[in-house]
Amino acid sequence: MESRAKNRNKHSSFARLPVEIRTKIWAETWPEPRIIEVRELWSSSQHETQRQGPQRILDESETASCRSLDHSEDGNRELNDEGSFYLGLQLTSSFSSWMQHDFGHRVTEDEPLEECPPPISLQICRESRAFTLQHFVRIKDSISPSRSFYFSPRRDILCLSRDIVETGAEEVEEAGCCYGAQLNLIQSSLVELYDWNEAMGPAYCFKFLHRFKGIKLVRVLLESEEYDGFEGYRVRELAVQAGQRKIKDEALLQGLAFPWTVEYVDRTGNVHARLYPGRRL
To answer: What positions belong to coiled-coil segments (predicted)?
Structure first.
């Protein structure tokens, strides 16, 4: 009885806080920005049948990775009576963890780097859930509904793997089949400099991001080497690299209306140069 009384007192004390304070507390429980990948996923009727019925919020947004990927010798996706492979979206890592890895060599078959559970504030109370749903939306997977997930359009970031860039835009189109207009909710993308250069700079956006019509910001990750004890030198080197790349990109955009903002960033997220949209160069 005494324990219950204490819990009630704690709850009533929290409820008396100004709503601005309560919403700040809910926001502090949100995950840091995360990375969204286009991945090769497995869908099976058995898997979906096991997931039927009322689901907890955690189940709805679970991003469990496929443990039984099986490929034929020629690299094509296997299709059989039990299920099939398809290209879909999946949360794969926090932004900070992602930037510590050499993600430039990832392919669609790779497993997520870490678990990305939904915001805990979706499950605390009606107020926390309602407030969180003002900032997070559910991406519904029409092929495998249990792979649907919640993400923040303004915070979470799309990153396309190397094999998608090398294969071409067809795989981006394939990935869009089970999401439709939901792809337009994604607002930012991260690109490794190698892929950016291979696609002739801003052409990367026109070729690979046109399917994601909501994207406004593209971050290009600069290459850098570690200089022990010479952090200032490294920053200057990155700034020079960013300036040179921006000049090249401006030249490539002569006469074109470019709708994206491009930021040239390092692995800590520092911005060394920007290319702004909205005008013909």
So the answer is: none
**pLDDT tens column, 183-193:** 999 999 999 99
Q: Exposed e or buried b for every residue in 3-26, given b needs 16+ CB within 10 A? A: eeeeeeeeeeeeeeeeeeebbeeb
Q: What percent of the chain has pLDDT over 70?
A: 77
Q: At 188, which amino acid appears? A: S
Q: b vs e for 160-175, b when ≥16 Cβ sit within 10 Å of the residue's Cβ?
A: bbbbbbeeeeebbeeb
Backbone φ and ψ for 92, nearest 5 degrees, come out as -125, -15
Cα separation, 230 vs 257, in Å, equals: 40
Q: Look at the alpha carbons of 96, 102, 107, 111 in this order and tell me if their dihedral is positive or negative.
A: negative
Beta bridge partners of 151: 137
Query: Mean pLDDT across the chain, nearest whole number?
Result: 82
Domain boundaries, the chain: 29-153, 187-281
* 75: helix, strand or coil: coil
